[in-house]
């Protein structure tokens, strides 16, 4: 009976996984392109006072859009989520809350900053409850892109971890200037990099190192590399990130930050899955 129950559970999980993958594949262009473009327009319109109050910086829309754009990453990684991964990612989630609370209360390690809007419900009235939804996928995207781009070099732990940490800092070189531009948060006093101080990147180097090490411990690396190699949509969330925050940086003239977003585009193109494939899926004869 136990064996029969296990087989039934495995079959059900596999069926659900196939269905979720089908949904993501059939809607890749909408998820990875349409949502971030609409999000960029909406956020800039909110920052410029062009939207009525019910729509301006609407936390429900922000969280809903974020969840949709995260869905390819979540669905892509589901087959590799086991107890080990759940434990390590749980520790990463707790770390994410802890270091952000420390940052808000002590100005360390990122420098003095404050949130300009409420990104949904706030934990202790200080930090977004959905913070792990914003941060953890960025770490996963950086790590997965590292595995794909480095190929055989990814077996060297120094090269693998060092590259993933650099990618995390690079992601924030794109994110923070755009977020400051649209009023998500602000640094006091403003820093020299589009309002972002150098201390922020020292903080990201610290938090990114801890996060990357935890992600590295979370998965069977060989199985993860194979999944990332064969699942064509698993990095679509990074495509969304580049389109959303890269576009905002362009609109506000943050050209260096936009250039870093362009580097991530080159990294994605080097994986041989985004030259025509994503656009092709939007066509009736595609997919």
From TrEMBL:
Q: Which InterPro entries match?
A: BABR_hydratase, CruF, CruF-like
Alphabetically sorted, this entry's keywords are:
Lyase, Membrane, Transmembrane, Transmembrane helix
Q: What are the GO MF terms of this UniProt record?
A: lyase activity
Q: Does the keyword section mention Transmembrane?
A: yes
Question: Which residue ranges does UniProt annotate as crossing the membrane?
Answer: 29-47, 59-78, 85-104, 129-150, 162-188, 200-219
Under Enzyme Commission nomenclature, its number is: 4.2.1.161
The protein here is known as Bisanhydrobacterioruberin hydratase
